[in-house]
UniProtKB/TrEMBL annotation:
<feature type="domain" description="HotDog ACOT-type">
    <location>
        <begin position="32"/>
        <end position="144"/>
    </location>
</feature>
<dbReference type="Pfam" id="PF03061">
    <property type="entry name" value="4HBT"/>
</dbReference>
<dbReference type="InterPro" id="IPR006683">
    <property type="entry name" value="Thioestr_dom"/>
</dbReference>
<dbReference type="GO" id="GO:0009062">
    <property type="term" value="P:fatty acid catabolic process"/>
</dbReference>
<comment type="similarity">
    <text>Belongs to the acyl coenzyme A hydrolase family.</text>
</comment>
<dbReference type="GO" id="GO:0052816">
    <property type="term" value="F:long-chain fatty acyl-CoA hydrolase activity"/>
</dbReference>
<dbReference type="GO" id="GO:0005829">
    <property type="term" value="C:cytosol"/>
</dbReference>
<dbReference type="InterPro" id="IPR040170">
    <property type="entry name" value="Cytosol_ACT"/>
</dbReference>
<dbReference type="GO" id="GO:0006637">
    <property type="term" value="P:acyl-CoA metabolic process"/>
</dbReference>
<dbReference type="InterPro" id="IPR029069">
    <property type="entry name" value="HotDog_dom_sf"/>
</dbReference>
<dbReference type="InterPro" id="IPR033120">
    <property type="entry name" value="HOTDOG_ACOT"/>
</dbReference>
<protein>
    <submittedName>
        <fullName>Acyl-CoA hydrolase</fullName>
    </submittedName>
</protein>
<keyword id="KW-0378">Hydrolase</keyword>
Amino acid sequence: MLTSEPVFMIFIITCHTLSFAQISSMQKRTPADSMTMMTEIVLPNDTNVFGNLMGGRLMYWMDIAAAIAAQRHCNAPVVTASVDNISFENPIKLGNTVHIEAKVSRAFHTSMEVHLKVWGEDFTQQYKYKSNEAYYTFVALDPNRKPRIVPELVPESEEEKNLFEGALRRRQVRLVLGGKMNPNDASELKALFFK
Ligand SMILES: CC(C)(COP(=O)(O)OP(=O)(O)OC[C@H]1O[C@@H](n2cnc3c(N)ncnc32)[C@H](O)[C@@H]1OP(=O)(O)O)[C@@H](O)C(=O)NCCC(=O)NCCS
């Protein structure tokens, strides 16, 4: 009986350690917890024939910045589930710096919406200009590559609260467009049109 006690104690400690780890990985997070800043410089190989940053290259960098933010939120590997409409407001010139800010704007069950803002910076003229904004959606995966539950997001600032509110509608738009939701079930969207 005495010899089995230490083994029993180790078993209990291991169980507790595991459950503490699981609990801590599911604790609520704020957008600041996932905040990710990426900085790049536009080199000749990144540009189109007009000497501007190619849209595809920018979307690639945005995908990486957003994936890092999503992974910071859920502490798990993620895959891109969808990318919302991106409109390029201002081109970013060869030699300019690109700043990408990514933060989780809402967490659902296994998916997270990440909000991105992009600026260009011209060092010689000393000014910064907004290039575009976008939303990417990521799904967290477990070791069997199946979707896994993500921690809740608690918005703090007024801007974060507005993004959080709007995320339900944006989710329904992308699920309807992706053929994953019946438009009749998109209650948030319908409420916009039928009061
Ligand atoms: C994204 C993916 C994991 C979803 O898997 P699935 O079997 O469809 O899983 P489910 O239907 O249970 O959906 C899981 C979550 O994904 C979300 N989702 C699925 N399709 C989506 C879409 N088109 N847009 C946004 N979210 C989507 C669901 O809403 C759900 O989120 P929730 O749990 O928070 O409600 C799967 O489709 C996949 O692996 N896609 C390829 C990802 C990839 O390779 N990306 C790299 C770029 S090609």
